[in-house]
Amino acid sequence: MALRDPAEAAREQLAASRQRALEQAQQHRNEVYSQQPQLYQIDREIARRGMEIASSAMASDAQEQIERLQQEITGLQQEKLHILAQLGLPENYLEPPFSCPICQDTGFARGHRCQCWQKLYRRQAGKNLPGGGQIYQFDNFQLDYYPQSDDKGGNPRRTMEHILMKCMEYAEMVGRGEDPGSLLFCGKTGLGKTHLALAIAGRVAERGLLAAYTSAQSAVDHYERTRFNRSPSREDWDFLSAVEKADLLVIDDLGSEFNTAFTQSVLYNIINDRMMNGAATIITTNLEPAKLTSQYEQRIASRILCGYTSLVFAGRDIRMMKRMEGK
Ligand SMILES: [Zn+2]
């Protein structure tokens, strides 16, 4: 699972795009200047007047001078367009083709993050999630798979309506400055825990925040490779950074990982560090609370059971039902 820092990815993407645009403009200039040296002279004249404008700002007749220089520049530009047209070239042929004309692919416009940067950031943040932040959403979480009564006199559908509401609220609370707390999704396999955890993560990413997803086992694997220097990859380091920086971290299927002392210490550190930082974490597990206590060191079990809000999923195995319906 790729867990690139979206800010870094957006920065790199824009820088590469700006570089390409500048190189292409340079290439076009070289080509056209050798064909039509007059254009080179015109560009030099334009540049010289641009500098004169900057330096004449302090002169007593500044306004007059600037107006004259601007008129000259306009004249030169027209001459240039005329020559380009004669060569059969489009008028922007010598301009860098930036992907964003507003910020010229710098990511900043008038001292603020440009909209294009926000867009790239969100796209990357969503890409980090299984399904690209698109497949598992609140909208396609189907409540009608949950029965309205069970043999214990409960109403799974009502329970799940309540959980769905909670999850939607939570997705809006993450990253607002206050500690939103952390969630524990418990319940048997196939009750939609991963779906809702990813729907929250998708919404958090859509809001332009950093959401990261991992299974409990792959979290441990990332740490193992970096800790014991088993040729850690970029993804391993990105994961470690995401644990530190992500506004939301989903740890899926706690209890399915290979249980060792190392595993326990990794999980404890992730859970504890994020709790100390007031960072939102969602853990999903098939284990019942009593099992959590017996399978994990007391310090882990107590962090989760006392520090997290538990949501107990109800119903029948939806994956099984979908399979039987041929979906
Ligand atoms: Zn831009």
Q: Strand arrangement, largest sheet?
A: 4-5-6-3-7
Note the overall shape.
Answer: elongated
CATH class of the largest domain: Alpha Beta
Strand residue content: 5-15%
Give the tally of β-strands: 7
Parts with pLDDT < 50 across at least 5 consecutive residues: none
Number of domains as seen in the coordinates? 2
Considering the protein shown, what is the CATH homologous superfamily of the largest domain?
Answer: P-loop containing nucleotide triphosphate hydrolases
Counting DSSP H or I runs of 4 or more residues, the number of helices is 12
Oligomeric assembly: single chain
Rg, please? 29 Å
Can I get a quick summary?
With 327 residues, the protein is an alpha/beta fold.
3D structure, described in words:
By secondary structure, the protein is α/β, with parallel strands linked by helices. The protein has 2 domains: 6-113, no CATH class; 128-324, 3-Layer(aba) Sandwich (Rossmann fold). Helix content is 56%, strand content 10%. The chain has helices spanning 6-35, 37-55, 62-86, 115-127, 156-173, 193-206, 216-227, 234-245, 261-276, 289-295, 298-307, 318-324, and strands spanning 108-109, 112-113, 182-186, 211-215, 248-254, 280-285, 308-312. The strands form 2 sheets. The protein has a 5-stranded parallel sheet, sandwiched between helices. The protein has a two-stranded antiparallel ribbon with strand order 1-2. Strand 1 and strand 2 form a beta hairpin. Helix 2 (37-55) packs antiparallel against helix 3 (62-86). The longest helix is centred in the first third of the chain and has 30 residues, at 6-35. It is elongated, with a radius of gyration of 29 Å. The structure holds zinc ion (ZN). The site of zinc ion has 6 residues, from loops.
